[in-house]
Write a structure and sequence with these properties.
This protein has 362 residues and is α/β, with parallel strands linked by helices. It has two domains: 2-327, 3-Layer(aba) Sandwich (Rossmann fold), CATH 3.40.50; 328-362. The protein is built from 14 helices and seven strands. It is globular, with a radius of gyration of 21 Å. The structure holds thiamine diphosphate and magnesium ion. Residues 162-164, 192, 194-195 line the site of magnesium ion.
């Protein structure tokens, strides 16, 4: 089916419209009612946790945080497709994916409180650490995919990057490597229209992000990232292809970052209310909810009491993160290498002298 979605034609794979009506001819719903309801609940959980994270930062209880608001359909569709053998290589705006891969919300809160232990993701052996250096993670993803193929191990790699990340050299090297070696890597570009204040039309002259995959010989599809059902279809297909030994796949997920870039950013400085409102009509939760409503499935859902239940759970995770003992400064240096290189020893020593100096000034 996806053969007819050649990115060069700039066609968008979309199942439902903004009112939740199925607009894709011949579409067969692949999920049970129970699964559909669970997907909505998971999106709502992610949104509640994300909104609370922003609030915790505002209260001075957590450091800078990048909001996920508006991008939940991509994350929860990924979560539904990713299985135990698969690997997840994140950027930094995929909250629902980390949770699905086995990270606890407490660890995520730790991360944004600067606790070095967070990146261990103790219950998620196939989740790589969050990567703030843009697009560097994609090289790891391609290497990981190559390794899986070389060792004939099961599983595929799900790798995430933003629209801005596609301008980095690492993005291009990673795509080329994965294509040449036919590594089982699914590249997911969350095209949320901005890289901090840089609008996507200034990021590239390409007609879309998906054509970038075509240039490297990677089957690629541009899909509606605010449409859970579209994302589920295309990611399931990508996984089937990669698992069958057909090499990498690229998905451009068209979406909109409804929040600020991070809690340190003020988007009113570079985008208009009109633009925000246009995208608001396509909000992934509202759209999916309208779809469920048309199917008569909303009767079993009570958003308000669900949110209350989630808030209690999320508060517990945050309190556990706050209760954790302060980590020691040397832990920052201890986790990167098995044996500490001389340069890092020098940095550690310099940092310890700096802290000792600060202590003396007290
Ligand atoms: C290599 C590198 N260059 C610059 C930055 C600063 N920076 C942080 S986020 C960001 C924009 C990323 O935009 P995009 O890839 O679209 O992801 P989004 O934030 O929209 O999810 C930049 C330039 C960085 N973290 N790493
Ligand atoms: Mg972006």
């Amino acid at each position: 089916m996806f053969e007819t979605y050649n990115p060069i034609d700039d066609k968008l794979y979309k199942v439902i419209d903004n009112a939740g009506k199925v607009v894709l001819k011949g579409w067969n719903n692949p999920l049970t009612d129970k699964e559909l309801i669970q997907a909505y609940r998971d999106m709502l959980y992610e949104r509640t946790a994300d909104t609370m994270a922003v609030n915790f930062q505002r209260q001075g209880r957590m450091g800078t945080y990048p909001p996920n608001l508006g991008q939940e359909a991509i994350h929860i569709a990924s979560a539904k497709v990713i299985a135990k053998d698969d690997w997840v290589v994140p950027a930094f705006r995929e909250l629902g994916v980390y949770l699905a891969a086995g990270a606890s919300l407490m660890e995520i809160f730790w991360y944004y409180k600067g606790n070095e232990n967070a990146s261990k993701f103790a219950g998620a052996p196939h989740l790589l650490p969050i990567s703030v250096p843009i697009a560097t993670q994609l090289l790891h993803a391609s290497g990981l995919g190559f390794s899986l193929k070389y060792k004939k191990e099961k599983g595929v790699v799900f790798a995430y990057v933003g629209d801005g990340g596609t301008s980095e050299g690492d993005f291009h090297e990673a795509l080329n490597f994965a294509a040449v070696w036919q590594a089982p890597v699914i590249f997911i570009i969350q095209n949320n229209q901005y890289a901090i204040s840089m609008p996507v039309r200034q990021q590239t002259r390409s007609i879309n992000m998906a054509v970038k995959g075509i240039a490297y010989g990677i089957p690629s599809v541009k899909a509606d990232g605010n449409d859970f059902l579209a994302m589920y279809d295309v990611l399931s297909y990508a996984k089937k292809q990669a698992s069958a030994g057909n090499g990498p796949f690229l998905v451009e997920a068209l979406t909109f970052r409804r929040g600020a870039h991070t809690t340190s950013d003020d988007p009113t400085r570079y985008r208009t209310k009109e633009e925000e409102n246009t995208w608001l009509t396509g909000d992934p939760l509202n759209r999916f909810k309208s779809f469920l409503n048309k199917k008569g499935l909303l009767k079993t859902l009570d958003d308000k009491s669900l949110e209350e239940e989630y808030k209690l759970k999320i508060t517990k995770e945050f309190e556990a993160a706050e209760a954790a003992p302060e980590y020691k400064p040397d832990e920052v240096f201890a986790t990167m290498f098995e044996q500490m290189p001389d340069e890092l020893k020098r940095q550690k020593h310099a940092y310890e002298s700096y802290l000792a100096g600060k202590e003396r000034q007290k």
